[in-house]
Write a structure and sequence with these properties.
CATH architecture of the largest domain: Sandwich
CATH topology of the largest domain: ATP Synthase, domain 1
Structural class: alpha+beta
Radius of gyration: 16 Å
Number of helices: 2
Number of strands: 7
Oligomer: single chain
Order of helices and strands: EEEEEEEHH
Helix content: 25-40%
Strand order of the largest sheet: 2-1-7-6-5-3-4
Shape: elongated
Number of domains: 2
CATH superfamily of the largest domain: F0F1 ATP synthase delta/epsilon subunit, N-terminal
Strand content: over 45%
């Protein structure tokens, strides 16, 4: 069995990753999934969280929100609605989005879409966590 498989992470606007990976962890709707070379065919819906993957050069992490993933024995394709490398995350914008979502969730306004506000809060928190982990690694 091969030691790696091809990983592609794509958003509607760009191809973020195309390289050989040894292992991938990605957020499904009901929890994280681990993908290794030779994985059985699988299609899953993505949740909000982080994708981490190992290559010969180390472990890499991206923020991801919604989409689909298709695993085949020799390839994993991730079609994400949104995905960002940690260094591309605008933390000030993510902090504002988090505050805005928290305000909406605490509001008693009947016109607030609470499901959408919860999604926005989860995405903002995920982006901030990934950005902060990267900053902490860089400070070592």
């Amino acid at each position: 069995m091969a030691a790696t498989f091809q990983l592609e992470i794509v958003t509607p606007t760009k191809l973020l990753v195309k390289e050989d990976a040894e292992e991938v962890q990605l957020p499904g709707l009901d929890g994280y999934l681990g993908i290794l070379p030779g994985h059985a065919p699988l299609i899953t819906e993505l949740g909000v969280g982080s994708i981490s993957y190992k290559t010969g050069s180390g472990t890499h992490t991206l923020a991801v929100a919604w989409g689909f993933a298709e695993a085949l024995p020799d390839k994993l394709t991730v079609l994400a609605e949104a995905a960002e490398r940690p260094e591309d995350i605008d933390t000030a914008r993510a902090e504002k989005a988090k505050r805005r979502a928290e305000e909406r969730l605490q509001s008693s306004n009947p016109e607030v879409d609470y499901s959408r506000a919860e999604d926005a809060l989860q995405r903002a928190e995920s982006r901030l966590t990934i950005a902060k982990v990267t900053i902490a690694k860089d400070d070592r």
